[in-house]
Amino acid sequence: MILARFFYPVRELVPIFEAQANLLYESAKLLADMQKTLDPSCWRQSFYEIRANEHKGDAMLTEFREAQRSLPLSAGVRRELRTIAMALDDTLDVVKDASNAMNIYNPAKIDPQLQELARIIVEEADALRQVFPLLVNIKKNAASISLLADRVRELEHDADEAYEAYVGYIFSEEPDLREMTKYKNLAELYEKATDTEKHVSDCIRILLMRYES
Fold first, then answer.
1. CA proximity to 24, closest of 150, 111, 130
2. pLDDT tens for residues 141-200?
């Protein structure tokens, strides 16, 4: 097993990861709330809040980079921690893009399938929010970390199936080509958000495997 001293400094970065994950969770909930209304003013307000969170996330990433420089980490652990922080930031960017797309496309309706994809984004974000405090003690919490990573993977598979089924549905049931394109593009962005969240959990799993190797 790798010496614990290579992982002890990880706990110094956990508060930044937690802050990033909380921003993602808050933004995911705002995106999900956007699926419950057809009021453009509500969409705009939610987008502004998500965009503000994305700006905070950029600041968090800068804080992470500065904090990491001063810690005695092995090269591999340093690289993997940086990948996690960047993956969280990328996911927040995708959620922001998805919320902006709602305002740009101004869809005439919001199908239950889009609401389901948004719900999965929230559930994945919630699992990620739960996993980061566990990194304070990787050895003790290894099983719980692995279970949460598995949960994200399962949810991402659900999102893939929901996306494919929805695309088939709109191609067969939506007569308006312009609206069909809007729904498909929105679904693609939501599915992309679930993919990037899974990437975060995959990076965490790699870190866990390094500790256990």
1. 130
2. 999 999 999 999 999 999 999 999 999 999 999 999 999 999 999 999 999 999 999 999
Please write the tens of the pLDDT for every residue from 73-107: 778 788 889 999 999 999 999 999 999 999 999 99
With tokens 């695309």, the residue in question is 167
Tell which phi-psi region holds residue 74, choosing left (phi > 0), alpha (psi between -120 and 50) or beta.
beta
Residue 11's H or E segment, with its range, is: helix 10-34
CA nearest to 48, candidates 88, 102, 118, 110 = 102
**Which residue has 């994950």 as its token pair?**
21
Longest alpha-carbon distance in the chain:
62
